Amino acid sequence: xxxxxxxxxxxxxxxxxxxxxxxxxxxxxxxxxxxxxxxxxxxxxxxxxxxxxxxxxxxxxxxxxxxxxxxxxxxxxxxxxxxxxxxxxxxxxxxxxxxxxxxxxxxxxxxxxxxxxxxxxxxxxxxxxxxxxxxxxxxxxxxxxxxxxxxxxxxxxxxxxxxxxxxxxxxxxxxxxxxxxxxxxxxxxxxxxxxxxxxxxxxxxxxxxxxxxxxxxxxxxxxxxxxxxxxxxxxxxxxxxxxxxxxxxxxxxxxxxxxxxxxxxxxxxxxxxxxxxxxxxxxxxxxxxxxxxxxxxxxxxxxxxxxxxxxxxxxxxxxxxxxxxxxxxxxxxxxxxxxxxxxxxxxxxxxxxxxxxxxxxxxxxx
Length: 366
Fold this sequence. Notes:
Number of helices: 12
Order of helices and strands: HHEEEHEHEHEHEHEHEHHEHH
Region (Disordered): 42-131
Number of strands: 10
Shape: globular
Strand order of the largest sheet: 1-2-3-10-7-8-9
CATH class of the domain at 25-35 and 178-362: Alpha Beta
Largest sheet: 7 strands, mixed
Protein name: Tryptophan synthase beta chain-like PALP domain-containing protein
Organism: Hirsutella minnesotensis 3608
């Protein structure tokens, strides 16, 4: 009798918490004057399936100006399917409990997630949407080297081993991640641009997106398509790529989450030699682009997506007119609104001056 009642109580509490977060997001957007834009914005998908599957095909959007880029840019959005309750996330087809690591997944399995605790509660949202139970191990925020047994990734593995019928997705070094983008995202970009893509760029966390898409586009174009790694402060990958693998320097830190890396992951290792160059993107540029995309494009982006847009703009400037550059939008501002649009937070991070004066009207939180 107790267990069903407890589960109902937990479900009701979770639903109330989710509604509270939604109400907060809407309140922020209404204060900014963009609430309508969240559902009826200027984004227009050029190509999307009539009945998309639960995982896989993602819509493409064409940005005429890409917030200042000299040429049109395309972006891919992995979370757009209004009202359908579907998650468009290619990795889920290969890594999640439903498609799961090709052979490791079991019906009703739990996915164990581990994250360094930074005061946020969004871990495992894709798994929840897919119908999986996702127990999350909340770990200290202090960064430890990947080889340290106390590193959060190793703690997540040990946590999964203690659970019955659980899968540790090992997202950084599970090469099903890379394969997912090699088999889905890359072909989608090639098909939807009709092969007229000249460059791809994005930041990396696991590096599955960059590696898989780069490999496919290089093969499909016989080496014509360029690939550029975008890197935030605090990551070693820009120094590694720009020095030809000689340097691994980590300097500074970044407001972005989920991107940047202190090592070459197993997902990236097979294709790192295909990357044509790298770009170091400062937090100042990323935060400015958050506000520019909101104002000029009607895109409500998080800092990691904004960093990708900055990178796409810089690649477009590097290549010159009549080139098509593709990037991905990997997060939304709704997850970070209480920080990105907070005057105090921006001041504390010394980023307030990075927001153009005419766009500071969107800073609606104290």
